[in-house]
Write a structure and sequence with these properties.
This protein has 13 helices and 13 strands. By secondary structure, the chain is of the alpha/beta class. The structure holds zinc ion.
């Protein structure tokens, strides 16, 4: 049975939802190209969902698109483009890159700009419930009305203030009663898109977007809510405060699952630092299986440094797996083969330990090669390798040597 680490309780725990599992993963702000850090995040959740399905769970998966925020408006201005058109174009590019890696599309893929009346309604309910206040056309969440604020990130007030300032939380805003009160609605600025609300024209804050879309498409509680580890604070802390203030009877989320950060050239891979490895560039040289294997060669909670050696090793592994399936004969379902297959499952059940699962998969390929050399029948072992490989989203297709 799957034991999955939960950021809130700080330990692995079993799923609590029966066989119907809902998954919400914070999506992209579509204004730039897909980089390997995005791929790491979404490949991890793709494998988690494939693993759950292979165990008989039914999964409903929602991922949002933050198609309105300061970055996308700035980029659209720079390009002289409509921000919605920029968002659509970049969302399509992102989906194409992820499709190429075999990352399946979510069941629900809502865009923030199409959900604004529902967000306005939730903000109104927060005001009615005494959890929020209006100032000069802005609405703020009063964080002191939610006593569990801070439990998820486990940060001190000083640390929260520091991070909020770094990540655009604007704690110096004089309209707030407490610098950690956060924005639910921001008053329209000249030249920016805005929507009507009882507090005047404006647009929603980022955090309320995810609370609204998670509740609308999955209900509360959400079984698994995921994202990059950099979203724990403030984004997920704020989402939790809003959702549990709106629906205090049930927890917002059973399992908070956070994926480590990918570094490159000594820094977190990010648009602002410009140290990006683009998925589209890697696909010119390496197979989709190699890219997946490179990403799955680290545990999802680890933050790690990418370099060329990681992908070269992964390409060799991808080739070895594909070759094992191409062998004409091999060993039947020997005990070693069955032990490898069971260890593969056990590794994924152990907080999605993909490095160990990969090790077992390569062991399975080794058994097939050995069996083949010895002239035994290997079809069962090959069927098992294919089945387990599918859980990791592998296609076993090799790229032509000329394209390397
Ligand atoms: Zn979110």
């Amino acid at each position: 049975m799957l034991q999955l680490y939960d950021t809130l309780s700080g330990q692995p725990k079993p799923l609590e939802s029966g066989l119907a599992v809902s998954v919400y993963v914070c999506g992209i702000t579509p204004y730039d190209t897909t980089h390997l850090g995005h791929a790491f995040l979404y490949v991890v959740f793709d494998v988690l969902i494939r693993h759950l399905e292979s165990q008989g769970y039914t999964v409903t998966y929602t991922q949002n698109v933050t198609d309105i925020d300061d970055d996308i408006l700035r980029k659209a201005r720079e390009l002289g483009m409509d921000y919605l058109e920029l968002g659509r174009r970049e969302t399509e590019r992102f989906r194409r890159d992820l499709d190429a890696l075999g990352v399946r599309a979510p069941d629900h893929y809502p865009r923030a700009t199409e959900e604004i009346p529902q967000m306005v309604e939730l903000i109104g309910r927060l005001i009615d419930g005494g959890h929020a206040y209006e100032r000069a056309g802005n609405v703020y969440f009063r964080k002191d009305t939610y006593p569990r604020y801070g439990e998820l990130s486990k940060l001190s007030r000083e640390e929260m203030l520091e991070i909020a300032a770094e990540r655009g939380g604007n704690p110096d805003d004089p309209l707030r009663d407490d610098p950690l009160d956060f924005q639910l609605w921001q008053a329209a600025k000249p030249g920016e898109p805005s929507w009507p609300s009882p507090w005047g024209n404006g647009r929603p804050g980022w955090h309320i977007e995810c609370s609204e879309m998670a509740q609308r498409y999955l209900g509360q509680p959400v079984t698994i809510h995921g994202g990059g580890a950099d979203l724990i604070f403030p984004h997920h802390e704020c989402e939790r405060a809003q959702s549990e203030s709106l629906n205090p009877e049930v927890p917002f989320v059973h399992h908070w699952v956070h994926v480590g950060m990918l570094r490159y050239e000594g820094e977190k891979m990010s648009k602002s630092l410009g140290n990006l490895v683009l998925v589209g560039d890697l696909l010119q040289t390496y197979s989709p299986d190699a890219i997946r294997l490179a990403l799955l060669s680290r545990h999802y909670r680890e933050s790690w440094e990418y370099d060329e050696g990681v992908i070269a090793t992964a390409q060799a592994a991808a080739d070895e797996l594909a070759n094992a399936l191409a062998l004409p004969y091999g060993d039947g379902a020997s005990l070693d083969v069955l032990v490898r297959a069971a260890s593969f499952e056990a590794a994924l059940d152990n907080d999605l330990d993909t490095p160990t699962a990969l090790h077992e998969l390569l062991g399975l390929a080794g058994e097939i090669e050995r069996g083949s050399r010895e002239g035994a029948e290997v079809t069962n072992a090959q069927a098992l390798l294919r089945e387990k490989g599918r859980v990791l989203g592998l296609t076993f297709r090799q790229v032509a040597a000329t394209t390397r």
